[in-house]
Amino acid sequence: MYDVTAVRAHFPALDSGIAFFDGPGGTQTPTPVARAMSEAMLAGLSNRDRLTPTGRRADDIVTSAREAMADLLGADAAGVVFGRSMTSLTYDLARTLSADWGPQDEIVVTSLDHDANVRPWVQAAQAVGAQVRWAHFDPDTAELPLEAVTAVLSPRTRVVALTGASNVLGTRPDVTAVATAAHQQGAYVFLDAVHLAPHVSIDMAELDVDFVACSPYKFFGPHLGVLAGVPETLESLQPAKLLPSPARIPERFEVGTLPYEALAGVSAAVDFIADLSGEPAGTRRERLVLSYAEVGAHERGLQARLEEGLDQLPTVRRYSRARHRTPTAFLRVAGVDGIEVSRRCAEAGVNAPCSNFYAIEASRRLGLGDEGAIRAGIAAYTTTEDVDRLVAGVHSAAELVG
Known about the structure:
14% strand, 13 strands, alpha/beta
C-alpha cells in the first residue's frame, strides 16, 4: 500500500504547508538527495582519476550516476550523457546532427512539444537550408494522432522530435508507433521525456527511440540535463569539442567538468524513487518499475478527484483531455485573468502558476496566445487535501464573475 504520509516526511519543503502543484516545472527535493549532494562536496572532490581518493570519488560518482540513469530510462550506461540542461543538450545534438544536413533534408517537429524540443531542431535546419515539417495535435481532443506524424514523414526525413508527454496537456502520444514509422524512413527519433520521466517507467529499447532526454529536477533531483543515446549511434557522431577533451563516448558529448555533487544527487534521486515501492528485493530497475506502478496509481486517483472537482464548474475549461495523459491539468476560468486565478490559489497556499510554460506552439494552437493557462501537476507527494485546496482556489476565482 502506497503511504503518501511516509513519502512526504522526506520533503522538508512540505512543512511550509504549501500545496505544490508546480512539479512540472520542478519538484521539491527530498532529504536523501540534498544529503548526498552535501556529502559529496564536503568529503572532498577533484578532477576524475583513479590515483587519488578525491579523484576516485569523483569518478565513482559519475559512473554511479550513469548507471542510475540507465536503470531509470531502460538505457545503456555507456550512452548516458550529462549536461547543463535538457535544452542545452538538445541544442548540442541538433548542431551535431545537422552538420550532415542540406536543402534536400527534412526534420519533423510537433506543436505539442515544449520549445526545447522544437526550436533547437528548427534553428539547426534553418542554418543549413533543411526543411521543417510540422505535425499538429487536435486542439479539441488534445491528441496527437499517429497519422499527423506519418503524413509528414518521407525518405528525406532525418529526425523526428517528439514529446513523451506534453508538459502542459499531459498528452502521451504513441511513441513506439511513431518510432517504427520514422525508422522505416531512415530517420532518428529524439524523445523529450522531461514530463514523462516523473510519472512513467521508461524503457528506451521498448520505445525504440534513438535518443531520450530528461531533467532530474523534475523527479526530485538537482538541476541538470540527461541525454541517453544508443551507444552505437553516439559512436558514429562527432560533436564539437576541445582538442584535449576525451574522444570516447559518452564523454565526447560532455562539455567541461561535470557537476559531481549534482550527479551524486541524481543517483540519490533514482534510489529514492526505487525505494518508494517499499520492496527491498530485486534489482534497482525492477524496484523502479514497481515504484512507478504504485506512484502512478496514487496519482491517477488524485487526478480523477481533481478533474471531477474542476469539471463541476461550468466556467472552467480544462484543455487536458487526451485519453492517455500524465496527471496534469491545464485550465482557464472564463472571464478571469489567469494570473488572478494563480493569485487566488496562492492566497490559499497553493502553487498553481499560469503561463505557456515554454509550450508556446501548443498554447497558441489552443487559442490561448502567449499567456497560456493554469497548470496543475500532481506528484508523488500530493494528497487529497492538496487537491481539494486547489479546487477551492479555482472555485474562488470563478466567483469573481458571479
